[in-house]
TrEMBL record:
Region of interest called Disordered, as start-end residue ranges on this chain: 130-149
Pfam hit, one: AhpC-TSA_2
InterPro entries recorded: PXL2A/B/C (IPR032801), Thioredoxin-like_sf (IPR036249)
The protein's name: Uncharacterized protein
Species lineage: Bacteria, Pseudomonadati, Myxococcota, Myxococcia, Myxococcales
Domain of life from the UniProt record: Bacteria
Gene3D superfamilies membership: Glutaredoxin
Amino acid sequence: MHRAKDEIHARGAEVVIVGNGAPHFARAFREDLGLTTPLYTDPTLATYRALEFRRGVVATLLSGRTWLHALRAMRAGFRQGRTEGDALQLGGVLVVRPDGEIAYRYASAEAGDHPPLADVLAALGPARPAAAAAGSGPAATSPAGGRGA
């Protein structure tokens, strides 16, 4: 999603990443990828449990689809570095409105499973005119139990 941040910002929203490694690993992750979006970490996995995101060996390592996702990512130039945090924990994508309403939820079924970008953008609504978007700026909120990196 961070590669689509300009499209997301045009809709008055922000990309917020929540990982589960230690804070010093999150800082290194930010630096390695050159991230400018908010990045939090929840080593306790409380956020993942609250969102009912899947965790387990079958969905992360033993699924044939996981290996297909890995191959697709490698062909696109992505390389998996050393995993920090809970490697068995899957993630997902949420679109959360300013009032806290979850407008869109996607829970990954296996490692490397991501929602279609078009679905996420549709949940965010149409892009704002440039002048209106520049004045409002995107908003970000910290997840429960998260620590900034």
